[in-house]
Write a structure and sequence with these properties.
The termini are close together. This protein is an alpha+beta fold. It contains ten helices and nine strands. Helix content is 46%, strand content 15%.
């Protein structure tokens, strides 16, 4: 999807008109627009937003608290009960040959397991059920987060134009119909469900909070970088600024042309992003000025038309 605009200051030939139309007010000379060169970081905001939501849900409904057990420590329950692995636990004496072993000792392990298993309707059973419910919540949140992560990474790694977007959407519809037909004929989903039950990704609230904080830090870095890489467009000139030392290039807007290109429909239709590419070309310059990942490109092009004017418009 490409749009091309041209700007020219040449006045058209005058024709006699008994009632001249009202002159169009010229744009103010002090008006300008600054176009930032953003990286791909804003495209990841759905992942960060879902991570923040999962963090809040896991904090109140799930997530086993492991803050009291730092990395490298042993299980405190095993240490207190003298479980195997504890050096202070006394070793059992093996029965000598010719002597009968104690029946209770031979079944000691089973006896201990039965004694340790919480009986129904006890506080221990209630705690175990609550812990299991928290783990189910952690698993559900982890699956949701992985799906959102897949969508965000797919939007960054794959550029979909309109044609390929239609092809992928058609392929997904065909695949869904095939799975539905397989489920009707041979019971596909009951066969796959036991396999999926063994896939148990889990994450707690601290993990989701860490993902959100990493994205927030990258957004701060990106915001800082864009302060030094931008293009400023005024009514009379275009200034390209790049680098912390403010290397500047100035171009005249006389006969300037700019082109709007949409290479990825996912980024263009993603709310709060709607990014695209702008290409500025000048008659006296062999190389064009390319600005990738322009946020809200539709609004930016509308402001460009208001500042420098649009003499021609082609698709």
């Amino acid at each position: 999807m490409t749009e091309e605009h041209a700007h020219s200051d040449a006045a058209p030939a005058s024709t006699p008109d008994p009632q001249p139309a009202a002159a169009k007010p010229a744009p103010p000379k002090d008006r300008k627009i600054i176009i930032r060169m953003w990286p791909k970081t804003p495209v990841l905001y759905p992942m960060a937003l879902v991570a923040l939501i999962c963090c809040l849900v896991a904090h109140f409904a799930g997530s086993s608290d492991l803050s009291n057990y730092p990395l490298g420590t042993n299980d405190p329950v095993a240490e207190e009960s003298g479980a195997p692995g504890n050096d202070d636990a006394p070793a059992e004496e093996a029965p000598t040959e010719g002597t009968s072993a104690n029946p209770q000792a031979s079944t000691g392990q089973a006896t201990v397991l039965v004694a340790q298993a919480p009986a129904p309707d006890t506080p221990q059973a209630d705690d175990a059920e609550k812990e299991l419910e928290k783990k189910r919540v952690d698993r559900t949140l982890a699956v949701i987060f992985l799906l959102t992560l897949f969508f965000s990474l797919f939007a960054i790694c794959v550029d979909l134009d309109v044609r390929w977007a239609i092809i992928y959407a058609s392929a997904l519809v065909i695949l869904a119909l095939l799975l539905w037909i397989l489920d009707i004929t041979v019971g596909f989903f009951p066969m796959v469900t036991p396999i999926l039950d063994h896939i148990t990704p889990m994450a707690n609230a601290q993990f989701f909070l860490g993902v959100f904080l990493v994205w927030f830090f990258l957004m701060c870095v990106s915001f800082f970088i864009t302060r030094f890489h931008y293009v400023k467009v005024e009514a009379s000139e275009v200034m390209v600024v790049g680098g912390m030392l403010e290397r500047q290039q100035r171009y005249d807007t006389m006969r300037m042309r700019y082109t709007k290109e949409i290479h990825d429909v996912m980024e263009y239709y993603l709310p709060f992003v709607r990014s695209g590419r702008l290409i500025f070309s000048f008659p006296e310059q062999n190389e064009a000025v390319i600005i990738d990942n322009v946020i809200n490109i539709k609004k930016v092009t509308r402001q460009l038309d208001e500042i420098v004017g649009s003499g021609g418009h082609t698709h």
